Amino acid sequence: MSELAQAAGLLVNVLPIVTATAVLSMIEFCVMSKTNRGFSVYLVLPTLIFTLGWIWLSFITAYVPEPYLDEIFHIPQAQTYCRGDFFHWDDKITTPPGLYLATIAATKLKLLFAGAACSPLVLRSFNVWATATVALLASTCRRRLERSHSTTAATTSAVATDGVVSGYSMYTGFNVALFPVLFFFSGLYYTDVASTVSVLLAYAHHLDRVSRPTNSMLSDVCVVILGVLALVMRQTNVFWVVVYMGGLEAVHAIKQLSPKSVAPASTTPFTRLSHVLTTYTAGAVHDPPISACWPDDIIFSLLSIGLAAFFHPLRVLRQVWPHVAVLALFASFVAWNGGVVLGDKANHVATIHLAQMLYIWPLFGLFSAPLFLPVLLSGANTILTLPWRLSASEKTTAQHSVVHAFFVRRLYYTPYIAATFVVSALVVRFNTIVHPFTLADNRHYMFYVFRYTIRRSETLRLLLVLPYSLCRWLVWGALSSSSKPLVGGTYKKDPVPFVNHPILPSASDRNPDPKNALSSSSSSSSTSIQKGIVVSDLLSDTAPCASPSASTVALLLLTTSLSLITAPLVEPRYFLIPWVMWRLLVPAWKMDDLSSTPLSPVTKMPVISFLVKFASRYDIRLFLETAWFLVINAATMYIFIAKAYVWKAEDGSILDGGRLQHFMW
């Protein structure tokens, strides 16, 4: 009871202020007219995140007041900095001192007001602020992604850019901050939340840069500063600020070339291939939205961008030189330090761990299950319509060459799927690595995952390839957010830019849903006459429904691979930033996608029709995702607080001085 009383006392210190802010902002949102809303609209959900984080911190402080697990390294190091000793370093700490420096700065600015200076409570409270900042930055990044989906500058006015914010982007930021692996550490003094903030800061600036044709020198310098800030938080952030964002800026530079369209001399396959390769070198790249993509589209997208970059190196270098500078600074640090990690180098040796790229999919699948509803409906529609679509496809095959039919009917897709299973099985068989830390610490959930699955038997380990593959299909399918069938469709020109397939005439086999096309943002321009902040829904603004491009998805996969396969240790925290960046790319989904499918009669049933009408304005997956995250967070918090135990040796003797141990991510 004393712990509950202490937690209640901590809540009383701050909840009135935070609750008042949230209530006033909500009143403004619900009561005042759109033209009179202020900036506080953006702060409603981040304030709620702060409130929830403070509640969690209060319980942790009451039940676990002393530094726990990795905090036994981080908190003393931060307290050393608090005393002004910036030259003492604990050799067990592997990450740079960015978290400690940021905490000291926040303390000096009087942002951390919970108790004695640099006490565990005060230091932990920094991550409560950081988690609320994640919500705000994630919403900002998502809004800028939606703004970039306009295909012409004329469709997005200055007022629309600055004054219209989609409800989807605001709610997405809220759910990102609620992500269980991130939110759990809002109450502990770990580096993960602050590291996520630093990457999102760099990403928000990057999205602002790619919204204009050219950038100033000041903007370039900001890239370097924000990149260094991300590296000071965690070394592996180099992949996100250099490879991912640098790669996206290179693609942006190439797309600014805008070469004139020239028709091929003839329509023979060889002539068209030669012509398209020539246009690739001029900058006419193939980069359709992922909702219209098949594997060959991604391959040709990378080929076209690579050729364009090779023939226009100065244009690309002008755009990406700040990222090259960040990479050079990081390389200099590695050379000076003698390695990537700062301390405990013997237990953190970089290796090739390809199995990480198998583990990531079920982890995403567990947390993001509500987002897979469109993919599952798409699968159902595919099964229901497959016979007649295949029959129609067979009738058209005779009209085209073998090569053309190979791409039109995607005859390679079945061998491709089989190959992914084979490669996954080979990775499991020859590259499964079990780090000693995974088996030595039963306080982490991953200990039990390995114990009851991966280490159970070789047969079970290989059988896990099936759920790995299924979850991978669901994760990438969520980036399309379409419920239309996967097979068949009319073979005609896509209403999107950057479609330049070398075999097919300017289109992919699947005609993308106009709701998912990148040109569908004209409705947002109709609301641009509003003044103040306008929170739009999916009827007034379809830009949130636009899918990311093939090159963006390819760069996301590449960066995720580089950041994970060099780590021998498997921890959910390592998948945090990959999940955040993936989640920001997931487009909104309107349930009226089902209107022209075999499932359409179901949507006309009384109760379901009401849900469909509601879901035509708001992505119902967001509410399901929130509920799911709250359930997971409540469960893990309860286990952490209520299921504490004491370590005992095999002979029954008490270990670790009898201190209570707690289960955590």
UniProtKB/TrEMBL annotation:
Region of interest (Disordered), ranges: 504-526
EC numbers, comma separated: 2.4.1.256
Entry GO terms, CC: endoplasmic reticulum membrane
Coiled-coil ranges from the UniProt annotation: none
Topological relation to the membrane, as annotated: Multi-pass membrane protein
Transmembrane stretches, start-end: 6-27, 39-64, 177-203, 215-232, 320-342, 354-377, 416-439, 622-641
PANTHER family xrefs: ALPHA-1,2-GLUCOSYLTRANSFERASE ALG10 (PTHR12989), DOL-P-GLC:GLC(2)MAN(9)GLCNAC(2)-PP-DOL ALPHA-1,2-GLUCOSYLTRANSFERASE-RELATED (PTHR12989:SF10)
Physiological role: Dol-P-Glc:Glc(2)Man(9)GlcNAc(2)-PP-Dol alpha-1,2-glucosyltransferase that operates in the biosynthetic pathway of dolichol-linked oligosaccharides, the glycan precursors employed in protein asparagine (N)-glycosylation. The assembly of dolichol-linked oligosaccharides begins on the cytosolic side of the endoplasmic reticulum membrane and finishes in its lumen. The sequential addition of sugars to dolichol pyrophosphate produces dolichol-linked oligosaccharides containing fourteen sugars, including two GlcNAcs, nine mannoses and three glucoses.
Protein name in the entry: Dol-P-Glc:Glc(2)Man(9)GlcNAc(2)-PP-Dol alpha-1,2-glucosyltransferase
Organism: Thielaviopsis punctulata
Source lineage: Eukaryota, Fungi, Dikarya, Ascomycota, Pezizomycotina
